[in-house]
Design a protein that fits this description.
Elements: E1 5-8, H1 18-27, E2 33-38, H2 50-59, E3 65-70, H3 75-84, E4 88-91, H4 99-108, E5 112-117, E6 135-139, H5 154-168, E7 173-177, H6 185-190, E8 195-198, H7 200-203, H8 208-220
Length: 225
Protein backbone atom coordinates (compact mmCIF):
# COMPACT_ATOMS: atom_id res chain seq x y z
CA UNK A 1 0.00 0.00 0.00
CA UNK A 2 1.18 3.51 -0.76
CA UNK A 3 2.27 5.99 1.87
CA UNK A 4 -0.73 8.33 1.95
CA UNK A 5 -0.25 11.91 3.13
CA UNK A 6 -2.94 14.42 4.07
CA UNK A 7 -2.11 18.06 3.42
CA UNK A 8 -4.59 20.62 4.83
CA UNK A 9 -4.58 23.92 2.94
CA UNK A 10 -4.14 26.95 5.16
CA UNK A 11 -6.28 28.91 2.70
CA UNK A 12 -9.23 27.68 4.78
CA UNK A 13 -7.56 28.17 8.18
CA UNK A 14 -8.22 30.90 10.74
CA UNK A 15 -5.65 33.56 9.83
CA UNK A 16 -6.27 35.45 13.07
CA UNK A 17 -4.63 32.52 14.88
CA UNK A 18 -2.80 30.74 12.08
CA UNK A 19 0.06 29.24 14.08
CA UNK A 20 -2.32 27.75 16.61
CA UNK A 21 -4.67 26.48 13.90
CA UNK A 22 -1.87 24.79 11.93
CA UNK A 23 -0.51 23.28 15.13
CA UNK A 24 -3.99 21.92 15.89
CA UNK A 25 -4.49 20.33 12.47
CA UNK A 26 -1.08 18.64 12.65
CA UNK A 27 -1.87 17.35 16.14
CA UNK A 28 -5.13 16.00 14.68
CA UNK A 29 -3.14 13.77 12.32
CA UNK A 30 -2.28 15.82 9.24
CA UNK A 31 1.09 15.25 7.56
CA UNK A 32 1.89 18.32 5.44
CA UNK A 33 1.00 22.01 5.55
CA UNK A 34 -0.23 23.17 2.13
CA UNK A 35 0.17 26.77 0.92
CA UNK A 36 -1.98 28.14 -1.91
CA UNK A 37 0.00 31.14 -3.14
CA UNK A 38 -2.11 33.38 -5.42
CA UNK A 39 -1.07 36.62 -7.10
CA UNK A 40 -4.33 38.07 -8.52
CA UNK A 41 -2.66 37.81 -11.92
CA UNK A 42 -2.16 34.16 -12.84
CA UNK A 43 -5.29 33.38 -10.80
CA UNK A 44 -8.09 35.74 -9.70
CA UNK A 45 -7.29 35.95 -6.01
CA UNK A 46 -4.58 37.15 -3.62
CA UNK A 47 -3.36 35.07 -0.70
CA UNK A 48 -0.12 34.50 1.20
CA UNK A 49 3.58 35.15 0.65
CA UNK A 50 6.92 33.98 2.04
CA UNK A 51 6.50 35.93 5.29
CA UNK A 52 3.63 33.66 6.32
CA UNK A 53 5.79 30.60 5.68
CA UNK A 54 8.61 32.12 7.72
CA UNK A 55 6.17 33.06 10.50
CA UNK A 56 4.94 29.46 10.81
CA UNK A 57 8.51 28.17 10.99
CA UNK A 58 9.32 30.75 13.65
CA UNK A 59 6.17 29.74 15.52
CA UNK A 60 7.60 26.22 15.73
CA UNK A 61 5.92 24.34 12.88
CA UNK A 62 8.37 21.62 11.77
CA UNK A 63 6.12 19.60 9.42
CA UNK A 64 6.83 19.75 5.68
CA UNK A 65 5.43 22.87 4.02
CA UNK A 66 4.12 22.31 0.51
CA UNK A 67 4.04 25.59 -1.44
CA UNK A 68 1.82 25.67 -4.54
CA UNK A 69 2.71 28.76 -6.57
CA UNK A 70 -0.21 30.13 -8.57
CA UNK A 71 1.88 33.09 -9.68
CA UNK A 72 3.49 34.43 -12.83
CA UNK A 73 6.44 34.86 -13.15
CA UNK A 74 7.65 32.11 -10.82
CA UNK A 75 11.41 32.23 -10.38
CA UNK A 76 11.77 35.23 -8.06
CA UNK A 77 9.50 33.64 -5.45
CA UNK A 78 11.35 30.31 -5.45
CA UNK A 79 14.31 31.66 -3.50
CA UNK A 80 12.08 33.63 -1.16
CA UNK A 81 10.00 30.60 -0.19
CA UNK A 82 13.06 28.37 0.06
CA UNK A 83 14.63 30.87 2.48
CA UNK A 84 11.34 31.03 4.39
CA UNK A 85 11.36 27.28 5.06
CA UNK A 86 9.41 25.64 2.23
CA UNK A 87 9.87 21.89 1.74
CA UNK A 88 8.12 21.46 -1.62
CA UNK A 89 7.65 24.16 -4.25
CA UNK A 90 5.31 23.41 -7.13
CA UNK A 91 4.34 25.64 -10.05
CA UNK A 92 2.31 25.67 -13.28
CA UNK A 93 4.35 25.04 -16.45
CA UNK A 94 2.59 27.82 -18.34
CA UNK A 95 3.62 30.31 -15.64
CA UNK A 96 7.35 29.75 -16.27
CA UNK A 97 9.27 30.81 -19.35
CA UNK A 98 11.78 27.97 -18.84
CA UNK A 99 10.25 25.05 -16.96
CA UNK A 100 13.48 23.02 -16.78
CA UNK A 101 15.37 26.00 -15.34
CA UNK A 102 12.71 26.69 -12.71
CA UNK A 103 12.71 23.04 -11.59
CA UNK A 104 16.49 23.14 -11.23
CA UNK A 105 16.24 26.43 -9.36
CA UNK A 106 13.91 24.83 -6.81
CA UNK A 107 16.18 21.85 -6.24
CA UNK A 108 19.28 24.03 -6.09
CA UNK A 109 17.55 25.99 -3.33
CA UNK A 110 17.25 22.78 -1.31
CA UNK A 111 13.55 22.11 -1.88
CA UNK A 112 11.64 19.34 -3.62
CA UNK A 113 10.23 20.43 -6.97
CA UNK A 114 6.94 19.86 -8.67
CA UNK A 115 4.66 20.72 -11.56
CA UNK A 116 0.96 21.56 -11.29
CA UNK A 117 -1.66 20.89 -13.96
CA UNK A 118 -4.99 22.67 -14.23
CA UNK A 119 -8.14 20.66 -15.06
CA UNK A 120 -7.95 21.41 -18.80
CA UNK A 121 -4.14 21.11 -19.08
CA UNK A 122 -2.44 18.05 -20.56
CA UNK A 123 0.53 16.37 -18.88
CA UNK A 124 2.76 16.98 -21.92
CA UNK A 125 5.10 19.30 -20.01
CA UNK A 126 6.34 16.30 -18.02
CA UNK A 127 7.78 14.54 -21.06
CA UNK A 128 11.34 15.86 -20.86
CA UNK A 129 11.60 16.87 -17.19
CA UNK A 130 10.24 13.90 -15.24
CA UNK A 131 13.69 13.25 -13.77
CA UNK A 132 13.63 16.74 -12.19
CA UNK A 133 10.19 16.39 -10.58
CA UNK A 134 9.51 15.21 -7.02
CA UNK A 135 5.78 15.99 -7.04
CA UNK A 136 3.02 16.09 -9.65
CA UNK A 137 -0.02 18.05 -8.49
CA UNK A 138 -3.29 17.70 -10.36
CA UNK A 139 -5.87 20.39 -9.76
CA UNK A 140 -9.36 18.93 -9.40
CA UNK A 141 -10.85 22.43 -9.43
CA UNK A 142 -9.90 25.54 -11.38
CA UNK A 143 -7.36 27.41 -9.24
CA UNK A 144 -8.13 30.68 -7.52
CA UNK A 145 -10.74 29.93 -4.89
CA UNK A 146 -11.34 27.48 -2.05
CA UNK A 147 -14.54 25.57 -1.47
CA UNK A 148 -15.13 24.39 -5.06
CA UNK A 149 -16.53 20.99 -6.10
CA UNK A 150 -14.30 18.17 -7.33
CA UNK A 151 -14.12 17.78 -11.13
CA UNK A 152 -14.69 14.03 -11.81
CA UNK A 153 -12.55 13.88 -14.98
CA UNK A 154 -9.54 14.38 -12.70
CA UNK A 155 -9.77 10.68 -11.85
CA UNK A 156 -8.85 9.73 -15.44
CA UNK A 157 -5.98 12.19 -15.34
CA UNK A 158 -4.74 10.71 -12.05
CA UNK A 159 -4.67 7.28 -13.73
CA UNK A 160 -2.62 8.77 -16.56
CA UNK A 161 -0.16 10.47 -14.19
CA UNK A 162 0.20 7.33 -12.05
CA UNK A 163 1.07 5.30 -15.14
CA UNK A 164 3.76 7.83 -16.09
CA UNK A 165 5.25 7.70 -12.60
CA UNK A 166 5.18 3.91 -12.37
CA UNK A 167 6.74 3.50 -15.81
CA UNK A 168 9.51 5.96 -14.93
CA UNK A 169 10.53 4.08 -11.79
CA UNK A 170 11.16 7.46 -10.15
CA UNK A 171 10.18 8.46 -6.60
CA UNK A 172 7.50 11.05 -7.42
CA UNK A 173 4.49 11.89 -5.27
CA UNK A 174 1.10 12.34 -6.96
CA UNK A 175 -0.96 15.03 -5.27
CA UNK A 176 -4.55 16.09 -5.90
CA UNK A 177 -6.05 19.42 -4.83
CA UNK A 178 -9.62 20.68 -4.99
CA UNK A 179 -12.87 19.48 -3.46
CA UNK A 180 -11.19 16.57 -1.68
CA UNK A 181 -12.89 15.14 1.42
CA UNK A 182 -13.99 11.85 3.01
CA UNK A 183 -16.60 11.29 0.27
CA UNK A 184 -14.12 11.10 -2.62
CA UNK A 185 -10.63 10.58 -1.16
CA UNK A 186 -10.84 6.82 -1.70
CA UNK A 187 -11.70 7.24 -5.40
CA UNK A 188 -8.77 9.64 -5.81
CA UNK A 189 -6.44 7.16 -4.12
CA UNK A 190 -7.69 4.27 -6.25
CA UNK A 191 -7.00 6.44 -9.32
CA UNK A 192 -3.38 6.80 -8.19
CA UNK A 193 -3.08 9.80 -5.84
CA UNK A 194 -1.01 9.46 -2.68
CA UNK A 195 -1.08 13.05 -1.35
CA UNK A 196 -4.36 14.83 -0.67
CA UNK A 197 -4.91 18.56 -0.24
CA UNK A 198 -8.07 19.46 1.67
CA UNK A 199 -9.02 22.95 2.79
CA UNK A 200 -12.59 23.61 3.88
CA UNK A 201 -13.23 19.86 4.25
CA UNK A 202 -10.91 19.96 7.28
CA UNK A 203 -10.57 23.54 8.50
CA UNK A 204 -14.28 24.15 7.90
CA UNK A 205 -15.26 21.52 10.47
CA UNK A 206 -15.19 21.84 14.28
CA UNK A 207 -13.30 18.56 14.86
CA UNK A 208 -10.20 18.27 12.65
CA UNK A 209 -9.25 14.88 14.09
CA UNK A 210 -12.67 13.42 13.25
CA UNK A 211 -12.43 14.52 9.60
CA UNK A 212 -8.87 13.26 9.21
CA UNK A 213 -9.83 9.99 10.89
CA UNK A 214 -12.67 9.57 8.39
CA UNK A 215 -10.29 10.27 5.52
CA UNK A 216 -7.81 7.69 6.86
CA UNK A 217 -10.62 5.15 7.23
CA UNK A 218 -11.53 5.67 3.57
CA UNK A 219 -7.89 5.29 2.54
CA UNK A 220 -7.64 2.06 4.52
CA UNK A 221 -10.32 0.61 2.23
CA UNK A 222 -8.48 1.41 -1.00
CA UNK A 223 -8.29 -1.68 -3.20
CA UNK A 224 -4.76 -3.08 -3.38
CA UNK A 225 -2.76 -1.67 -6.27
Amino acid sequence: MRDYLIAPSILAADFARLGEDVEAVLAAGADIVHFDVMDNHYVPNLSVGPMVCSALRNYGITAPIDVHLMVKPVDALVGMFADAGASYITFHPDASTHVDRTLQLIRDAGCKSGLVFNPASSLDALQYVLDKVDMILLMSVNPGYGGQSFIPSTLDKLHEARLLIDQSGLDIRLEVDGGIGPANIRAAAEAGADTFVAGSAIFGKPDYADVIRNMRNELAQVKSQ
